[in-house]
Amino acid sequence: LYNKIKKRGYLVVGLSANYAPMEFHATVKGEDTIVGADVSVAKKVAHDMGVKLQVKEMDFDALIGAMKTGKIDMIISGMTNTPERAKEVLFSKPYMFEKQAMVIRKSDQDKYKGILDFKGAK
Ligand code: ARG
Predict the structure, then answer these.
(1) Would 103 be classed as within a structural domain?
(2) CATH number of the domain where residue 82 is located
(3) HSE (CB half, 13 Å, CA atoms) of 5?
(4) Using one digit for the tens of pLDDT, what is the confidence trace for 78-109?
(5) Which pLDDT tens digit goes with each residue over 41-86?
(6) Which residues are paired to 75 by β-bridges?
(7) Would you list the DSSP string of the chain?
(8) Residue 29: which domain range?
(9) 37, 29 in Cβ contact below 8 A?
(10) Structural domain includes residue 32
(11) Best residue among 15, 60, 96 to mutate for probing ligand 1, ranked by most atoms within 8 Å of CB
(12) Is residue 19 part of a domain?
């Protein structure tokens, strides 16, 4: 598959762009664009392989089938490794949300209990 991708010159990554901040639609310079952390990951993978990136957007539930039938090379779509999925596909090591967290001052711990407490915060 690697040789096929190299020869073709681009990696085809499937994702479902409705999962901010991982992949979502945003207007960039007046154009509707798919952006997010997963798009950056996909770009990095393609770059490291020395090929271009082609993103194919589809329903989340269609991703595994599309990969099995060769419509896409890889899924990068915030997909959690579950036992059911792992029977069908091969997961990489987790690349996000391992131990990283947002950080605030300990002295503010009564002020901010959840993300909405930051609304209008000074
Ligand atoms: N992490 C969840 C899962 O794997 C939700 C992922 C949804 N991703 C998306 N791009 N819509 O089931």
Answers:
(1) no
(2) 3.40.190.10
(3) 21
(4) 999 999 999 999 999 988 876 788 788 899 88
(5) 999 999 999 999 999 999 999 999 999 999 999 999 999 999 999 9
(6) 14
(7) -HHHHHHHTEEEEEE-SEETTTEEEEEETTEEEEESHHHHHHHHHHHHHTSEEEEEE--GGGHHHHHHTTS-SEE-SS----HHHHHHS------SSSS------GGGTTT-SSGGGGTT--
(8) 2-88
(9) no
(10) yes
(11) 60
(12) yes
Number of neighbouring beta carbons within 10 Å of residue 35: 17
Extract the tokens encoding 81. Answer: 């490794």
Report the first-to-last Cα separation within the chain, whole angstroms. Answer: 52
Q: Which residues line ligand 1 (CB under 6 A)?
A: 15-16, 18-19, 23, 60, 77-80
Number of independent structural domains in the chain: 1
Q: Which position has the token pair 């391992």? A: 98
Q: Does some domain include residue 100? A: no
Note the pLDDT tens digit of each residue in 5-41. Answer: 999 999 999 999 999 999 999 999 999 999 999 999 9
Mutate to test the pocket of ligand 1, among 79, 91, 92, 95 (most ligand atoms within 8 A of CB): 79
